[in-house]
């Protein structure tokens, strides 16, 4: 009788684990990672746009490539297409992005020859390994995600809307930064000769400028600058600030 009671006790302890084991994320974790790896053909792109909760890893290299890691069912619902020279990674139009919130995050690995644009919308992340070389480089972030990259460009443009963040290093002759919302731009490692920066909302920006800084702040946002810059034009309304680091 004691053995029966003991066995029943163990069964009751195991029931929650059996229930959890039915969860896809749990199974992936105990299997040591993602369930599927899928390689897709891709070519002739000079920009990357991610629309979703994907973790995107871009490597600057010679041979263009694209690989996705995740649950097989999830990968089947992700579309990758080159449009107007931009490699777009996104949910199929018929899918509701909230469906992916309860699933294991998909990882996307991209090798690019040349990049002139990197954009992210949603809660995902983009990280670029290697230095981007471009005449005119643009990066755009909307949502709560993060972008991290290094770029040497004649002109550099960054736009943030939402609560996400962009971290940049490298060199540029002229940069233009725009923040609306609570997002942050960290350009301490981006050496720029001239910078035009505009913040509306509660976002913050850190920039490194050697010659001329034009700054405009409306709301509670803050601009912090380093370098030898002369602050030529300042427009400020609200409780925000413009100060030297």
TrEMBL record:
Sequence ranges assigned to domain Putative auto-transporter adhesin head GIN in this UniProt record: 44-229
Signal sequence extent: none
Full protein name: DUF2807 domain-containing protein
